[in-house]
Specification:
Blueprint lengths: L12 H19 L3 H22 L6 H8 L7 H25 L9 H13 L7 E4 L2 E6 L10 E3 L4 E3 L6 H11 L8 H17 L6 H15 L10 H7 L1 H10 L14 H26 L2 H17 L9 H11 L1 E2 L4 H5 L3 H13 L3 E2 L7 E3 L6 H4 L6 H4 L1 H7 L1
Antiparallel strand pairs: 1-2, 3-4, 5-7, 6-7
Helix pairs in contact: 1-7, 1-11, 2-4, 2-9, 3-4, 4-5, 4-8, 5-8, 6-7, 7-8, 7-11, 9-11, 10-11, 12-13
Length: about 400
């Protein structure tokens, strides 16, 4: 059914090189961040994933509003609340599904049951009114049927043309997809190439009545994690796709099966799929390089120091200037023993306890008990300072940034 499953051998040369660049670059990025720091930062970046995945669908909110939605607090505006609810559901679903993938090395993320689970998990975090399809004029009276494959045609794009196989053929294509793109069937760089190809094929099948785009992006992140790529979630595929939305859509539709006779088609199916995969990997590399720049240790240290200095010199003067030493050490190492604190800060035990108390209260430092090791904390208010290019005004909102000044 899927012809080809991945691009033919003659189209794999450049593709294998760039796929390996993605594998190496992602591993290099994860290797430069302490495990505990990567864990905390990666969980924050799930909100970034949801923000940009939502933006691709044309719904805009902000990171602070997503955090509020995760605590069941919403704006009074119906459209923004709709976006908040979608983003919060994306975050919760990704957390749950990623835990499942990381805990089961034998899991086939391309299996029909797992695809249904992704869809079901996403909609399980949404209120009842979301369980009908959504169009330009709002919710329809057609149920989404979470976790069930579509039994009708769906359409996307400006011309509203039906996409994918006929409803009766969806189960057949999904079962073929599960066999064709099982991660265990590929090795090395070809496993990543299979992920990119699977992203296109799943988008084309459009297996559900609604929510297909979000399911496909969640699927690709989970496939990469199953292939031991970006398991800490230190870079965002959805951010890259959103920032190149038009090119993303053009490449998706260009690689769709072409009903015209072969002698009328200028490029082969293999070439078109290879072009999509190249675009996909270039997008991945762009985001890896973006995060590499943000996570340069000397720049992180400088931003942490600037954050503390700003607080120390502000009108409240509410932070000890030496606090940056502890925050830098925690970011670089992930966690430290409590007894190391006075030496790191070069202060007395009394001063150390006073500084630590404030840092714990503000979430800049985290600990499970009064004797447990100290762990890095990344509260939301510090993120625009630590990572200004990522948490810029467009994603956190101008009002939120003004409150930080």
């Amino acid at each position: 059914m899927f012809n080809p499953i991945i691009p033919d051998q003659g189209d794999l040369g450049e593709l294998k090189d760039i796929a390996q660049d993605v594998i190496d670059g992602s591993a290099r990025l994860e290797g430069r961040v302490a495990l505990e720091t990567a864990k905390v930062l990666g969980d924050h970046l799930r909100l970034v994933n949801s923000y940009y995945s939502n933006l691709i669908e044309g719904h805009k909110t902000t990171i602070p509003e997503i955090e509020q939605a995760l605590s069941k607090r919403f704006t009074g505006d119906d459209e923004r609340q709709y976006a908040q609810e979608l983003c919060a559901a994306h975050v919760e679903a990704e957390r749950t599904l990623m835990k499942k993938v990381l805990g089961d090395a034998e899991l086939n993320v391309a299996d029909a049951d797992f695809l249904r689970l992704i869809h079901q998990e996403f909609y399980s975090h949404l209120p009842p009114h979301h369980l009908c399809t959504h169009g330009e004029k709002g919710f329809t009276d057609h149920p989404v049927l979470p976790g069930k494959f579509r039994d009708q045609y769906v359409s996307v794009g400006i011309n509203k043309a039906p996409i994918g196989p006929s409803p009766g053929d969806v189960p057949k294509y999904v079962n073929e997809f599960a066999k064709a793109y099982a991660p265990g069937a590929f090795h090395g760089d070809e496993r990543l190439i299979a992920m990119a190809a699977a992203h296109h094929r799943l988008t084309w099948i459009h297996p559900f009545r609604d929510g297909n785009g979000r399911v496909c992006r969640l699927f690709s992140g989970l496939f990469m994690a199953a292939a031991k790529i970006n398991r800490s979630n230190l870079w965002s595929l959805s951010r890259g796709l959103s920032r190149n939305k038009n090119e993303y859509m053009v490449n998706l539709f260009s690689a769709d099966p072409d009903p015209r006779p072969k002698d009328e088609v200028r490029f082969s199916a293999s070439e078109l799929l290879a072009d999509f995969c190249v675009f996909f990997f270039e997008t991945c590399l762009d985001q890896i390089h973006f995060m590499e720049g943000l996570l340069r240790l000397e720049e992180i240290e400088a931003r942490i120091e600037w954050y503390v200095e700003k607080r120390a010199r502000g009108s409240k003067g509410d932070m000890h200037p030496k606090a940056s030493r502890l925050l830098r050490a925690l970011f670089m190492r992930g966690q430290i023993e409590r007894g190391e604190g006075p030496n790191i800060l070069n202060v007395s035990e009394t001063s150390y306890r006073r500084i630590l108390k404030q840092l714990l209260q503000e979430g800049l430092v985290v600990s499970d008990s009064q004797r447990a090791p100290l762990r890095v904390g990344l509260p939301s208010k510090a993120l625009p300072v630590y990572f200004p290019d990522l948490y810029a005004e467009e994603i956190v909102g101008a009002e939120y940034l003004r409150q930080l000044d």
